[in-house]
Amino acid sequence: MRPAPHLTHTVANQAPDRVDVNEFTSHAALVEGVARFDAAWAVAELTQVGELVGDSEFQRAAQLAERREPVLRAFDRHGERIDEVDYDDSYHRVISASVAHGSHTAAWSDPRPGANVARAATFMLFAQVEPGHACPVSMTHAVVPAVRQQPELAERWMPRILSRSYDPRLYAGKPSALFGMAMTEKQGGSDVRANTTVAVRDGDLWLITGHKWFCSAPMSDAFLVLAQTDDGLGCFLAPRVLDDGTRNVFRIQRLKDKLGNRSNASSEVEFDGTVGYAVGEPGRGVRTIIEMVARTRLDCVLGTAAGMRQCVAEAAWHVRDRAAFGRTLIDQPLMRNVIADLALESEAATAIALRLARAHDDDASDADVAFRRLATAVEKYYVCKRGPGHAYEALECLGGNGYTEDYPLARRYREQPVMAVWEGSGNVIALDILRVLSREPDSVAAVRDELASASHADRRLADALRSIDARLAQASGRDADDVAFDARRLAEDLAIALQAAVLLTGAPDAVSEAFCASRLGVERGSLYGTLPAGVDVAGILSRA
Ligand SMILES: Cc1cc2nc3c(=O)[nH]c(=O)nc-3n(C[C@H](O)[C@H](O)[C@H](O)COP(=O)(O)OP(=O)(O)OC[C@H]3O[C@@H](n4cnc5c(N)ncnc54)[C@H](O)[C@@H]3O)c2cc1C
Question: Which helix (H) or strand (E) is 151 found in, with range?
């Protein structure tokens, strides 16, 4: 006789898994931003990518890539040093699809108007589901302006950088390449001028000796490395495999045991007579690599915005099917406030990210080039700082389940802080913003113009702009340390104002009005779920 079913095992009141959803077509802010910023031509491919990354198999691969972490294999079976890292097949599957769709270098291989917007959208769709692989993908995108400075290096490396094929092996003559960068040392990461690694000229080459304390994606084919020369800090391209097929010296000491970002290996490396090729003038390494960092900073905004979208999508999905105290959660007024507030944050981050991406296109006007210098730093500071809190609040919408590794938001919560730490930590970016404000009047004017033209549409933005103007005027006469003390406040005010401007000029009224009321108005709350009464919550939720 069959035993009676265990009533204690009845499973009820569960939301189905959020899988097999097209992550592009279901993301209203992304679809609208792509059209608004001149990348409508990419919709067909983005729709394909949206379907691919939303697929249950792909989502499973993303989960496994993080669970089955990369492992260092320093030696081969004979005891020869090989310094390789083994990744799980799930990671290879994710990154190979991402590269095939050009999330690394599509904006460079097809540089038409909107190219960076299309590439940003592709990058965001992949990073929404699997953020770890986005690190080497982003660095490969960002390395292009630096490599192009050196025609002989560009000739050899650019075809490989632009390739859409992915091959995890290291060998001479490989037709594709991914790049990393190695700047941070034990004694200092933000202050790279304190680097102790040295490079000595050897004919046409340089020999690099020293260490790097953080070097992510160590299986990349080449790295931009900062090292001291007699003329100051230089930037060098160090390949992992030399032309004759032998391995360049690249001793991986160990892999970092990280809070999140675990599918991506980050290593500690030593160089010992490692062959490098100069990129730019030897004494101007910071200037050379800053070109790269400018692009990776934008990708930090894109990556965080992608994470915010995942958070909103998962939270909104869950509360639609889960009931408590006699009502579905999404019908509970306070939960509606929380989800709508989270959605506004995601809308603003997505819109400003795409606006910035458009300013990075080859056809950007001088005003847009000036705009992107200040606005990218401002949003790198603010959007990345908002990421962890946003993820935390979203996972709480799933209750206890959100805190478990069975659901994707625990992973996201561990991922979000890294976007703020690398490519210039919060304070460093805030101080960089001050530098631009005092030294680059064209950038300040371009950002101001953007705010001024949108401020006609909303009194609160006009007030915010007046207050920013007053602070800027005050700053010019103040002691530098006092100005630095206040740098985060200024960065935050600029960031929120820019987000308001981009929403007022393109988002539906429900979104822009609620954003201005909750972020610029007097009723500004410090946590999520504090939207003031009267905002169009239904209008916001219908898009989430
Ligand atoms: C997962 C991960 C992967 C990474 N991958 C790479 C990589 O591939 N390549 C690479 O080169 N680096 C990499 N990094 C390193 C990263 O870029 C650095 O950790 C970062 O730049 C900060 O440098 P630091 O750790 O030396 O901190 P520090 O420079 O010592 O800074 C510590 C703190 O002080 C603050 N600070 C610094 N200067 C000032 C100031 N003047 N006023 C006020 N506050 C200040 C900073 O904002 C920071 O909060 C990675 C880091 C992580 C976490």
Answer: helix 151-162
